[in-house]
From TrEMBL, chain A:
One of its GO terms (cellular component) is nucleolus. This is Ribosome biogenesis protein BRX1. It comes from Schizopora paradoxa. Belongs to the BRX1 family. Residues 1-181 form the Brix domain. It is found in: Nucleus, Nucleolus.
From TrEMBL, chain B:
Belongs to the EBP2 family. This is Eukaryotic rRNA processing. It is found in: Nucleus, Nucleolus. Pfam families: Ebp2 (PF05890). Residues 1-101, 208-347 are annotated as: Disordered. The lineage of its organism: Eukaryota, Fungi, Dikarya, Basidiomycota, Agaricomycotina. It comes from Schizopora paradoxa. PANTHER family: RRNA PROCESSING PROTEIN EBNA1-BINDING PROTEIN-RELATED, RRNA-PROCESSING PROTEIN EBP2-RELATED. Residues 208-247 have a biased composition (Basic and acidic residues).
């Protein structure tokens, strides 16, 4: 997730946080670095990634589940942009239709919008970060803005976009009132933890096995019950 | 309630707080109504006393589930302020009341609190657009999630619309937008990475072309019979043409019998060859012979004679072998490559 750091010139990166349970350290860390926004990426069980987007020190904080990550290293995304140029932040209308959407939009505006006076920012705009709500999830894309048509370099400027990456999907889980603590003010009813999904999957598999075994047992029972006792005229008796 | 008091007692809460909590919890057990949560929160806040600004949040607590998050919070904040303790009190009271009720996921969507938080963190609407560069797309994206192509197209459309809108806004605010072509700086992706991307694109193109060629060949096989026929016809036609040419030559030859010098065989052969080859020979007939020296150079002449390699009186008296061997070797021309290599080159 270095990609995010590369894209945001006003970011200060901190080393790994040792313990996942002591989230209250984070606001202090942010305070040490004079930051008022925090993105904290939390990996669990080597397969699930959660992202906390928080305003420190007073909150709110949003906990999101990150899925479908494609990093910039993948060769399919052919765009490129200046390191440290300020990106446009684009939201679709879905954010304005719910309270949590509006709040998320505001927090993301603070975090992903590069301020004009950021020290490492470059003075031109050549990429766009787009957030869209679809299926109650937030889809993130990053495009390069190309103003010229490569086919006719002297023609009128024609804006087109090339994807730079990264891309990922965020599922909001909860919104807390404080920074990394406080009361829950929103929880996503549709969110199912990936662990639950996995365990359900495993259970389903186990169910299948159990069913098969039960069937087998039943069949054997039936076979036993229907077996006829030895006949007087069995072949090996008649032709002894 | 007793349990709660015990738990709190360990933490060393003062008597005043205990009294308050008791009063609070009592009131809470009496009215477990979820609808009037907001007002209730207010009164609680007032009862708890000092924290005026936190009064609104209490409303969320009574509908809160007793999940992991709460446990964590409890662990973390147990020593902090009255507010947290009040929260614990409420939760405990709830759990006592609804002992038999199976635990289920309670959805929290506290819109009032969300709005209030939004108000507190909202940026000043007066700051210029250039500070945030936020653009909102006026449409909701409503496509099939599983359909990758249309979904990505929708995202692309959103980004494109936003880019154009941002461009207009940038022009309004006199913010430089396009990077001039002579502005070079570090890019997000390194040059080597971009080279790899380019290589991959090329490879992909090559693969597509290859498969297309293969497909064409396969299709060509279907028409193989027709092709074979075509070839046969072509061969026949060329044979016929050749015969025609020879016939023409014979006719010419018949005409040429009258000439006295037409009897030499070489001339005839050349003419036949020309006719077969379908092209006139390069040699000009009336051209002069090449000179003696040129001919010698080209074909060689009789040779120097047997004795040219024998010692003479002069050479016997010369003793300068060294110069021939030592320095002469290097200046000599390039060695002719071996036979195998020459054959390989020819192919």
């Amino acid at each position: 997730m270095n990609d995010l750091e590369v894209l945001l010139p006003h970011v200060k990166k901190d080393s790994k946080l040792d313990s996942k349970s002591q989230l209250h350290l984070l606001p202090e860390l942010a305070d040490l670095h004079n930051c008022n926004n925090t993105l904290y990426l939390e990996a669990r069980r080597h397969e699930d990634l959660y992202m906390w987007a928080a305003k420190t020190p007073n909150g709110p904080s949003i906990k999101l589940h990150v899925q479908n990550i494609h990093t910039m290293d993948e060769l399919k995304m052919t765009g490129n942009c200046l390191k440290g140029s300020r990106g446009i932040v684009s939201f679709d209308k879905g954010f304005d239709e719910s309270e949590w959407g509006r709040l998320t939009k505001e927090v993301f505006t603070h975090i992903f919008g590069v301020p004009l006076s950021a020290r490492r920012a470059k003075p031109f705009i050549d990429h766009i970060l787009s957030f869209s709500i679809l299926d109650n999830k937030i889809w993130f894309r990053n495009f390069q803005i190309v103003e010229k048509d490569p086919l006719q370099p002297n023609g009128p400027p024609q804006t087109s976009l090339i994807e730079i990456g990264p891309r990922f999907v965020l599922t909001p889980i909860r919104i807390f009132e404080g920074a990394f603590n406080g009361a829950t003010v929103y929880s996503n009813p549709e969110f199912i933890t990936p662990t639950a999904v996995r365990s359900a999957h495993r259970r389903e598999k186990g169910d299948k096995y159990k069913m098969r075994k039960e069937d087998q047992a039943e069949r054997n029972e039936r076979r036993e019950a229907r077996r006829r006792e030895e006949d007087e005229l069995a072949v090996h008796k008649v032709f002894a | 309630m007793k349990r709660l008091m015990d738990a709190l007692g360990e933490d060393g809460i003062d008597d005043f707080g205990r009294m308050q909590l008791e009063a609070l919890a009592g009131g809470e057990e009496g009215s477990e109504d979820e609808d009037e949560s907001e007002e209730e929160g207010e009164t609680e806040g007032a009862g708890a006393g000092e924290e005026g600004e936190e009064s609104g949040e209490e409303s969320g607590e009574d509908e809160e589930e007793e999940g992991d998050d709460d446990e964590k919070e409890d662990d973390e904040e147990v020593d902090q302020d009255d507010k947290t303790q009040a929260e614990v009190a409420l939760d405990d009271a709830e759990s006592v009341d609804e002992d038999a009720v199976p635990r289920q996921k309670v959805v929290v969507d506290n819109k009032i609190a969300l709005d209030r938080i939004l108000d507190t963190i909202k940026l000043d609407p007066k700051i210029p657009w250039t500070e945030t560069l936020v653009v909102t797309y006026p449409e909701t994206i409503d496509v099939d999630v599983e359909d990758d192509l249309t979904r990505e197209l929708a995202f692309y459309k959103q980004a494109l619309h936003s880019a154009n809108a941002a461009r207009k806004l940038a022009d309004q605010h006199k913010l430089p937008f396009t990077r001039p072509s002579d502005y070079f700086a570090e890019m997000v992706k390194s040059d080597s990475h971009m080279e790899r991307i380019r290589q991959r694109l090329l490879d992909e193109g090559a693969a597509i072309k290859k498969s297309e060629d293969k497909r064409k060949e396969r299709e060509g096989k279907k028409f193989g019979k027709q092709v074979q026929l075509e070839k046969l016809r072509e061969r026949e036609r060329s044979k016929k043409e050749m015969e025609d040419r020879l016939k023409g030559l014979k006719r010419k030859r018949k005409d040429g019998v009258d000439f006295p010098d037409a009897h030499d065989d070489d001339a005839f052969d050349v003419a036949v060859e020309e006719a077969v080859e379908g092209r006139p020979s390069k040699k000009s007939k009336n051209g002069a012979k090449i000179s003696r020296t040129k001919r010698d150079a080209k074909f060689g002449f009789g040779g120097k004679g047997r004795r040219s390699k024998q010692n003479t009186k002069q050479s016997t008296e010369q003793f300068n072998y060294g110069s021939r061997k030592g320095t002469g070797g290097k200046a000599g021309k390039a060695k002719r490559p071996g036979k195998g290599r020459r054959m390989a080159l020819r192919k």
